[in-house]
Amino acid sequence: MSELLNLVGLSTGVVLYAMLLVMVIRAGQRPGGHQRYDPLLLATAILGLVWNVCALPAYELPKVGIEGPFPFLIAAGFSALGFLPAVVVQSVLRGERDAVRGGLKRVIAFAAYAVSTVAAVLHIHAVWAGGSLPSPLGMRLLTYAFIALVVPLAAVTRGQPGSRRALWAAALSIFAVSALHLSQLHQGDAAWPVELLGHHAALPLAVAILYQDFPFALADLFLKRALNVIALVGMAIFGVATVGAIHSPDVPLRDPRDVGLLVTFWVATALLYPKLRDLIAWFVDSVLLDRPDYALLRGRIGSRAQRQQDIAGLLDDACAELAPALSARVVRWREIVDTTAETATQDLLTRGAAVVDVPVAEAPHYVIEVTELLGGRRLLSDDRAALEAIASLIGRRIDAIRLSQERYERERREQ
Q1: pLDDT tens digits for range 97-135
Q2: 103 touches 96 (CB < 8 A)
Q3: What pLDDT is stored for residue 344 in this prediction?
Q4: How confident is the model at residue 163 (pLDDT cuts 50, 70, 90)?
Q5: By C-alpha distance, which of 368, 361, 367 is closest to 399?
Q6: Cα-flanking dihedrals φ and ψ of residue 369, to 5°?
Q7: What pLDDT is attached to residue 392?
Q8: Burial level of 273, CB count in 10 A (0-12/13-18/19+)?
Q9: Regarding predicted confidence, which is higher, 280 or 338?
Q10: Over the range 71-106, which residues count as b (16 or more CB within 10 Å of their CB) and which as e?
Q11: Judging by DSSP bridges, how do beta strands 354-358 and 328-336 pair with one another?
Q12: Contact 152, 110 (CB under 8 A)
């Protein structure tokens, strides 16, 4: 069971980090051929992918008779793993900014990267010296250093919401335990809970980094897809483990009963996947991210908009509906007369809020501002998509009101 978990866990890590890398690259595309990638998210995807790609053959190929050694592969994988907690520290320190600001914060970030660099050098030295890999000293250094960094990190991030602080603290703690486990030159023959905690700490590190960087609208998509993959892998492991538990050692594994049971699990997984996907989407939206039912919200705003004949009243009603749904202290509209809306949008997005254009056929134009989000909430990609759909609905109603008013004025002049 532990060997199966190791194989499946590392394979899942390759898929998840590759998916994250593709999402980061796609999100970095800009109109006109310009590219702007967030360096931390890009580093997270590459480091996680390198760790899982290197660890998978290094740990699993010897189990199928392909002997190494894989010294450089192991050194590269563990070096990448050692830099992941440093990326978490930088992500925590920069918060919603683009860079780490403040002398103490920069010292902590420098210390984190310095520890990861020293550990990487120790792994490379072990390769050249023919020593044990990973370097036990390097992995213990990572363990003790990042446990020690939790205290100053908590002190300089007192203003962060409690849920964010709890997540990164838990992620660093899990990594510390994993590094201590790996420093004992473990070869993958322990019980499956030990394998899970000891070899797959890179996944909670990725979740912690993504949770710190919600403004880049990746965490919601990654989380849903990651949970889908993990759920499918979990069902597959459950099926194989069930067959292994009831299988008699005196009967070949190709016995028709075992094959029939495996096929039954495969068919059940395929039939249950749509329901499983919907359940995961509901869990992420309603429980983790606390999102409203956007279809219901859009219908309610559309119904009220149809009864409005005044543009200002229409926009006021929409803002009043959006404020509690988005957990925002301030949702307001304003009329724009120049082209500064895009700059304002970018400024607000860095603070975790948004400015959405209301598309209308003729001037004057309007935007809806969502600011001062409560409880550490961030607007993610699905939130912005819902806002844009609601703004489009409002824009169509404004055009209809203007057309009705113009028609009324024309008929009055003709009289």
Answers
A1: 566 777 888 898 899 899 999 999 999 998 888 888 888
A2: no
A3: 45
A4: low
A5: 361
A6: -105, 130
A7: 92
A8: middle
A9: 280
A10: bebbbbbbbbbbbbbbbbbbbbbbbeeeebeeeebe
A11: unpaired
A12: no
Dihedral sign (CA 248, 252, 254, 257): negative
| Confidence class for position 216, pLDDT limits 50, 70, 90 | very low
**Tokens linked to 258:** 């075992």
Q: If phi over 0 gives left and psi between -120 and 50 gives alpha, with beta otherwise, what is residue 32? A: left
| Angstrom distance (rounded) from CA 237 to CA 2 | 11
Which of these, 50, 42, 35, lies nearest to 21 by C-alpha position?
Answer: 42
Q: Calculate the alpha carbon distances from 327 to 305, 316, 377 in Å.
A: 22, 17, 7
Q: Return d(Cα 21, Cα 49) in angstroms, integer.
A: 8
Which one-letter amino acid corresponds to residue 210?
L
- Cα 338 to Cα 56, 83, 364, 369: the distances in Å are 55, 46, 10, 16
CA–CA separation, 322 and 198 (whole Å): 45
Mean pLDDT of the chain: 75
Write down the pLDDT at residue 120. 92
- Please, are residues 320 and 410 in contact by the beta-carbon 8 Å criterion? no
* 306 CB-side CA count, 13 A: 5
Q: Determine phi and psi for 375, rounding to 5 degrees.
A: 65, 25
Q: Can you read off the two tokens belonging to residue 58?
A: 């290094």
Alpha-carbon 143 to chain mean position:
24
Q: What is the pLDDT of residue 23?
A: 72
Phi and psi dihedrals of 157, rounded to 5?
-120, 35
Quick: pLDDT tens for 275-306: 988 888 888 777 776 777 888 888 899 888 88
b/e for 188-204, b at 16 or more Cβ within 10 A? bebebeebbebbbbbbb
3-class SS string, 342-388: HHHHHHHHCCCCEEEEECCCCCCEEEEEEEEECCCCCCCHHHHHHHH
* Residues in the chain, overall count: 415
Q: Which two tokens stand for residue 390?
A: 């609601």
- pLDDT more than 70, % of the chain: 65
Distance CA 95, CA 156 (A): 11
Instruction: Work out the pLDDT band at 22, boundaries 50, 70, 90.
Output: confident
3-state helix, strand, coil split of the chain in percent (to 5) is 75, 5, 20
> Is it the case that residue 21 has pLDDT exceeding 50?
yes
Cα dihedral across residues 160, 163, 169, 171: positive or negative = negative
